[in-house]
Every structure is written in structure tokens, then in C-alpha cells.
Write the C-alpha cells for this entry.
Amino acid sequence: MSASKSRSPEEWPAATPPGNGAPMALVDLAAQYERLGPRLRARLDAVFRHGQFILGPEVRELEETLGRFVGGAHVVGVSSGRDALLMALMAVGVGPGDAVFVPAFTFTATAEVAVAAGAVPVFVDVHPRTYTLDPAALAAAVARVRRDGKLRPRAVIPVDLFGLPADYPAILAVAGRDGLEVIADAAQSFGARLHGTPVGRLAPTTAVSFYPTKPLGGYGDGGCVLALDGARADVVRAIRVHGHRDGSPCAERLGLTGRLDTLQAAVLLAKLEVFEEELARRRALADRYDAALGDAVVTPQLPVGAESAWAHYSVLCDDRDAVRAALAARGMPSRVYYEVPLHLHPAFAPYGQGPGSLPVAEATAKRILSLPLHPYLDPDAVARVAAAVRDAVRG
């Protein structure tokens, strides 16, 4: 776990909704709303009063607030995490003939955007304990593409899976040798850190999702691009409004309808007021799971210096489906992220990496299981879930 100290659940403020017999949820947005309702309504009412529903003042306020949160970055609010990735690729000119390296064990969008940009996704295996892109496998994949000579190695999209930052120092070293653009897929990891550096400053360009179930989530689709270079952020700003820059009547490049709605920015501003506290709660609950499950299943591994945002608490267990069934019988939710590695999806069959080509991703997909974890989860519920997992594993 992170070296930084989290408050124990007993120290959480009274604003935390008490357990009330409601069904256990994997993510509980209703409990969060019970706490934040007045702040959220005040923010939304302000938008309805001024009526600037597209790129209103709250969008700029959010961009500036997020930039300060990560200690300095140029932030562009956009329509979704998927669009954030696509716009980041478009901003650096990725297109036909280019290879974009992506981990095989993640959500579809990471590879999908490479195809949308006209490039070819090249799937890379993941580390067996962190489930993030394996830098050694990346180096081998780049060398293989160069030998083949059909594609130009152009970019890599590491994914901060389940909230844990990828190994950016090693990935940046490979990218520097091979001339790759690095675009961080931080859909699940905003709020995490690596060696003290926050997500948003770990790569030259970072894409974040504000999907409702993310650690910082809106009430609809949304996302942002964080860039360390202001000129790159300006390009993304033009792309999000059909390629127009600063109200120009002419499109300087091809773009998208990629704007973040003002209402979503207002929601996110309200949620940011308690975001760091919610992150601390997630860490405290993850600590409890670690202590209760460490000798029963394979618990998440945080490398030295890494601090997760704990979007999901995911374990490895041999009879995963039986454990899921046992949890469900007790009214306890669970999910499998991700059941099929990307290189085995029918949509990506044309890119020619079939079964057996990425063994770690394939083995992980058979054993991974995500347990309930959100800031408003009753700590006693963690104990009950852990006991149910232990009982199921013992058979």
C-alpha cells in the first residue's frame, strides 16, 4: 500500500452516510449524492441561471482547478475519456501507417481510438502483478514492428489500470529510445501518484475520464486532456471544436464535437471539494481488504512509491466464477474487469494477435475479480465481503 498515512474509517467525518440496510453496491453514487446534494444543486442552479450550457464559465474554472490539483498542467475539458484519447492522438498527428502500442488487458476504448485515428493497435502484454503495461514487453513489441517494416512505431498508450499508475519511468525510457509519443490513459487513476508525482504530470499528455463510476466522476460522459506543453493543449482545444481555434471562421485542422458540457463541469467542481477525502477513504478500505484477504487470494500489488486512486479493488482467485456466485448468494456484488483481453475481441481480429500470443493478459482475465470499493462503503461491509471470499476460497 501507499506509504502515505490514511485516516482509519472510524475517523471519517459524520458526513459519511451510515449503514442503513440498503443493498450493497459496487459503486454507490446515491450515497455520495446524499452528502453532496446541496453543493451540487447550488452549482447546477448557477448554470441554469446564466444559461451558458456549452463551454460556460464552469468549464474554464474546472480546467484551472484541475491544473492546480496536479501541480501545474494545461487542462482541456472534453466530451469523454475515449474522446480525450482520440484527441491526444490527433494532436500529435498519429494516422495511417502508424503503430500505436496498447496493453491487451484493459477496456476497449484504448485500442479503439488507435483505429479511429487511422492507425494500427499493437497489443502488448502486461505485468503479472500490477496488470499494467510491461515495459520489457513494450520494447520487444517495438523491435518486432521495426523488423517487420510495415508500420512506423509512433505512440504508446499505457493504462493506469484500476487506479494504479503504470511504470512511467521505464515506459518513457523505451519511448525515448524509439521515438514514441507517450499518452497516458488515466481514465481510472486521477488522484493517484507515482514517486510523489501526480497523475497528469507523469506523461507529456494524459487522458482522463469523468464517467460516473470513476474516482472523480460526473453525472454523464466527460473527460479531459492534461498536457505539459501549452502548445499541445491549444491544439486539443481546437480539435474539440471542429478544428477551429479562438473563434476563427476557418477550421485549421480536422476536429470533433468534443466539448465538456457546462453542467458536467459544475458537478465535477462540487465533487472536487471532497475528492481528496474520498481518495483517503478508498485507501483505508483497500488497506482493510489487504489485511483480511492477503492469505486467501492474490491481492493488489503497489510498487514502491506508487499510490493508487483505487478505482477498483481487484484480486486474483483460481475459481473466480465460484467466488462470484458465493458473493451473489449473500447479496454482495462483484464484477470482472476484464473478461476477454483486447487482442481476442472479434473487432480487433484483423490486427493478427490470436490466442496464446499474450499469456499474462490471457491468464489474468481468467482469474481477476473486482470487489465492492467506494468512499461510502460501510467498513463493516468490507469485513463481510472478505469473509465471504475466504469462505468461498476454502470451499
In short: Confidence is low (pLDDT under 50) at residues 1-10, 12-20. Residues 24 and 126 are 31 Å apart (CA to CA). The two ends are 28 Å apart (CA to CA).
